[in-house]
Amino acid sequence: MTSILITGGAGFIGSNFAHWVLANTDATVTVLDAMTYAANEASLAGLPENRFQLVRGSVCDADLVDELVSRHDAVVHFAAESHNDNSLDGPAPFIQTNIVGTFILLQAVRKHDVRLHHISTDEVYGDLELDDPAKFTPQTRYNPSSPYSASKASSDLLVRAWVRSFGVQATISNCSNNYGPRQHVEKLIPRQITEILEGRRPKLYGAGLNVRDWIHVDDHNSAVWTILESGRLGETYLIGADGELDNKTVIELILELMGQPTDAYDHVNDRPGHDLRYAIDATMLREELGWQPEYTNFRDGLAATIDWYRNNESWWRPQKAATEAAYAAKGQ
Ligand code: NAD
Ligand code: TDX
To answer: Which ranges carry the NAD(P)-binding domain (predicted)?
Structure first.
C-alpha cells in the first residue's frame, strides 16, 4: 500500500489515522474532507509536506471522488456525519453523506478496482440490556436505533452488496466508542473535560447508567491498518478493547482526575431513544489477524487525554461556545 486516500481525515479518528499512517508506514496520504463543523484543520498540523495533501471537497462529489480514487491504491472511508444528537435534530445530512456519499465512493472503487476499507460503528447492532452477558459479534442482527446509526447500517449494507454483486475489494469494521486527542467537544469525554476547564459542571444525560465500550483511537487505527493489510476481502471485523463503563463512572473518573469532587456534575435531559449498552466481542480480529490493543488501562488513557485538552486549548476553544449554546437550547 503506497498511496492512501482518507475520507473524513480532518475529523477525530481520520486525522489520528493520518498521523498514525505517516508515523508508522512509508505510505503517502491524501485527505478528502468537506471541512464541516466537525473538521479541524489544526488536527493535520505538522504532517510531512512531501507525503501529505489535504483536498477540500465532499464524498458526494462524484467527479472529484472518481479522480481521486483513480490515483490511489486504497481508500479508508471515515467521512460521515457522526453525532447521534445532531441526527435527532436534523437527519438530512446523515442520509446524504453517510448513505449517498458511500454509494458514490463505491461506484468509484468499483470502476477503478481500488481497495476500500469502510469504517463503521457498533451502533448498527442497536443496544444490549445492562444485565445481558452477550456482546455484539459479526453474527448479531442489525437493529439501529437513531438516524445516525440507521444511516451507518445502510452504508454497511451498500458495501456488502457491492462486494457480492460487483466484486469490489472491500472490508468493513464496526468499532466501539473512541476516545483520545482531537475529538470534537460535542462528544461525551471532551465535552466534560472542557466544561471543567471552563469552570462549569459536567452534564450527564438521564441517570447515566448507559454503558459504552471505550477504545483508544490509536488502538482503533492500528486495527484498521491490520485489516487493510491482512483482512479477508468481503469480511466484517468488529473492533473493541473490552472497555465497558457506564457514563456516570466515566464522568466521576474525569472529575477525580481533574481534582474535583466526584459528585460535582449535573443531570440533564436524556437523549431520546438513548441506547442502553454497547459491547464488542473482538475475538475474530484478535485470533485471525493477531491484533491487540495497547491502551488497556482506561484511567491512564483518560488522564493523557485530559492533559491533551489542557495543553491544546487553541484547538478546541473556537468550537466550544457554539456547541454549548446548542446543548443549552435543548436543556442538555
Ligand atoms: P468526526 O465527526 O470527528 O469526523 C468526520 C469528518 O468527516 C469531519 O472532518 C467532516 O468534515 C468529514 N465529512 C463530513 N461530511 C463529509 C462529506 N460529505 N465529504 C467529506 N468529508 C465529510 O467523526 P469521527 O468520530 O472521527 O468518526 C469517523 C468515522 O468513524 C465515522 O464514519 C463514524 O461513523 C465512525 N466511528 C466513530 C466512532 C467514535 O467513537 N467516534 C466509533 C465507531 C465508528
Ligand atoms: O454531554 C453528554 N452527556 C452524556 O451523558 C454527552 C455529549 C453524551 N452523554 C452520553 C450519551 C452516550 O450514552 O454519553 C454517551 C456517549 O455519547 P457520545 O459521545 O455522543 O457518543 P455515542 O452516542 O455513544 O456515539 C459515539 O460512539 C459511536 C460516536 O459519536 C459515534 O460516532 C460512534 O459511532
So the answer is: 5-301
- The reported pTM is 0.98
Give the number of other CB atoms < 10 A from CB of residue 274: 14
| Three-state secondary structure of 303-331 | HHHHHHHHHCHHHHHHHHHHHHHHHHHCC
How many other CB atoms sit within 10 Å of the CB of residue 268?
Answer: 17
* Distance in angstroms (rounded) separating the CA atoms of residues 35 and 9: 9
Complex-level ipTM: 0.99
Atom of ligand 2 nearest to the CA of 123: 34
Q: What is the distance between the alpha carbons of residues 300 and 292, in angstroms, rounded to a whole number?
A: 17
Ligand 2 site, residue 84, Cβ cutoff 6 A: yes
3-state secondary structure of 6: strand
Assess whether the C-beta atom of 101 lies below 6 angstroms from ligand 1. yes
Given ligand 2 and candidates 118, 151, 188, 217, which is best to mutate, with the most ligand atoms within 8 Å of its CB? 188
SS3 185: coil
Cβ neighbours of 207 (radius 10 Å):
11
Within the chain, where are the H helices?
Answer: 12-24, 62-70, 84-89, 92-93, 101-112, 147-166, 188-197, 217-230, 247-257, 283-289, 298-311, 313-329
Spans in the chain with pLDDT lower than 70: none
Q: CA torsion 71→77→80→83, rounded to 10°? A: -150
